[in-house]
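During the second year of the project, the team shifted from modelling isolated chains to modelling whole assemblies. The rationale, set out in the original proposal, was that interfaces cannot be judged from single-chain predictions alone. As a representative example for this report, we include one of the complexes processed in the last quarter. Its constituent sequences, exactly as entered into the pipeline, are reproduced here:
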Amino acid sequence: MTLKTLLLASGALLGSAATAAASGFQVNLGGQQNIGMGGVGVGLSLDQAAMFYNPGALAMVRANGVQVGANFALARGAYTSENGGAQRDLQHLLVTPFNLYAAFGKEGKYKFGVGVYTPYGSQLRYADNWEGRYSLTEINLQSVYVQPTFSYAFSPQFSVGVGVTMLAYGSVNLQKDIPLPTGPGHITLDGTTKFQMGVNAGLYFKPSDKLSLGISYRSKIDAQVKGGSVSYAGLPTGASAAAINRGFTATNFDATLPLPATASVGIGIMPTDRLTIGVDASLVFWSAYRTLDFNFSGNNGNAGTPTPANTGLVGGSTTSTSKRYYQDALAFRVGGQYKATEQLIVRLGSAYDFAAVKDGYVTPETPDAGRYIATAGLTYQPNPHLGIDASFQFERFAKRSQSQADLLNNGTTDRVAGTYRTDIFIPGIGVRYSF
Amino acid sequence: MKPIVKYSAPALALLGLALGGCQPNIDAPAAAAGSADFTSYVAVGNSLTSGYSDGGLYNEAQATSYPAILAQQFGKTGKGPASFMQPSFAPAQQDGSGYIKLQVVNGALAPVIPSAANSYLGEKLAATGSVLASGQLQLAAYSGAQPDNLGVPGISVLSSLSALTNGLAPYGLLNPFYERLLTAAEKPSKDYVTYIGQKTPTFFTCWMGNNDVLTYASNGGVASAADPFSNLTDTTRFGIGYRAILSTMSKRGTVAGIAANIPNVTGIPYFTTVPVATVIASIKANPQLPNAAAASLYITTGTGTVRVATSADLLTLTAQAVIGTASGTANPFPVGVGYSATQSNPLPSKYVLDEAEVAAVVARTTQLNAIIAKTARQNKVALADMNTFFTTVAQQGVAFNAVSNTAVFASGNLFGLDGVHPTPRGYALVANELIRNINNFYGASIPTVNINEYRGVVFPQ
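Output from the structure prediction step:
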């Protein structure tokens, strides 16, 4: 299967990439079997999704195969202003992170493969007229990585793997209201990212039938938008138009969003043939995300004859910068599977993701918090070649509050004071075919 | 394989939807009155307390006076006032004294003052047609019971206690905003301290003293011989007056309340919107002016000296309309008012608060604020340092729920079109700062308001 056909196949699923399902706007939904086990996988070689969790383990995956999985994430978010008033609920959206892998090679020796997955993303739409409307009304952030991978086993105990991660598709759509003296206007920033590459590499060590160890590292990719579009709605058209609209001339923007590196270690324990237990720890290097900067350009003529001085303005300024100051975020995961019969495998798992966003820095686009995760899954294998994997993941975010005083102290008044609470429900289904 | 996906995927999505119906809930922030009791709240003060905005007192702005916002927020503690009465105008006269509007003049937005010539901008005024002894238009009498918002535009500490002027200036006959609240019998004799003493609140706010410096400052440091309240108030009489007001309201320290001090008036848009440097630059660039490069802006100082203006001098908002106009003397335009020291008129003193006058105003504000702080302590009430608060706002603005608000004239959202008085949003900001201080002093947790829900200056659509 060529890269092109894989992309075409994935295109059918690409409604929107994901809602953030790990710290920050990371999405740790690499493979349906792994999801059922709390998202572990670095120390395991379950299936072709090893390409995502630990490319080093791919050579140890038993069969050649093709697999595809999709998740249906439903985020339920609530916000209450520090000033009281009605609770504002996120509008209900369904987002579908997906994964797709194909690998072949010589069993126990080497393997080539390619994976397509959605490692970062977020889609949120806030209630109409909510208190934070001038910070954000809606965001849709998508990323699709394509990762050709090669894994080689030096011995039955030790294998390595390297994948080239390619940001094949990325898009950002940010919308917010603008506080004009004549009433609220609206601005939409929309753009797609440039092609970028990174690496995903790992080592896998299996000293005995009952124990395996893995370590993996996925490098940072900067998602760069060049020449994204800026559009406005609700600017005045009457008496105040000349005075107000001259501050809104930009037609394009540039911005860069880091998709941070992730380092993980994992252990697999197989006490019996039927039972597999995985434990993972991973560290996402979110501290790379310091500020979100926009540079505006272009001139729509709102300020009269275009001059360098009146070009590229949004709210009278050619740039905008917003503090993020994310912190590196740890995650701990544990999960197990039990092979009840030759046809049926059942799974359970749990995880805790620490918040990437510091206190007083929470923004509406990523209402991040420490999150408790519980998962379950099962596999039905009608024959040795075919596996149907179902998974379910539930995430409960800790309640997160920040006050106007916090925002003033941190210089983060471009967001809102109040309390956020989010739950995410993610059912998923996948199909594996091995040969 | 395919049929299984086809049937199980929607089933799973349904499962998710069913679970997704579980919406997380957040408890509303708790509100409590602490050791204070807001069941009867009275506000004492001047125009800032009355809800005066855009150069006038009118119902729409009065509805969002900071005392009205406070009363509303006090109510959330469960120990708020059952009602809070403001002396509003009759619906047919809802625009009260009239107020300045932003309109298109010669193709650009400009503040327009209501006058007979522009049919009072179509406003529904409450003028009776009579003129008071002060020359101000009489306003229709307020007929309800004594209100809870006792803010009287224009009143100073000096004019609150008739003994301070030996009863020679009966304030109830001079100030239309006070006159409309009094009965015919009360007008010649009842001073403001007596008037506010009729109330028996459980909690009060007192924001007095602004006009003891502002009246002088906004007139460019020119006091009128005919008006005993037009100079900077001396500290002796201010002290006597302020102590009388605060001990009257606190019933000698037994009623809870909060006193707010005097913000430094030199930071308001009235004094910052027309910077000297900008005026001089535009004069020097005026192609119609002979020898424009040699011209500058000449002012008359408080001592009568004529000199070139410097950045330490503050031009009033009203100076804008005067600078460069035909002088009316022997040398009309192009040598307009302020352009020259010798050939024509320098800018009259009342349009500029010169460096020495600025220093005098700032020094007097500091002295009066010391009296306010000491008197608040003596009467065991909280003190809101509005001077420090406003200085911060004037310097860096205040962003709230991602909306930037500044002290910039008109477009900054906080100050109305007279350049002195806040907009409803400015008043909401004042209310929040008072709430913060009340919460600190009385151990209360009164919620603040979302100031973005209150308007800034009204721009025509």
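The radius of gyration of chain A is 23 Å. Confidence is low (pLDDT under 50) at residues 1-19 of chain A.
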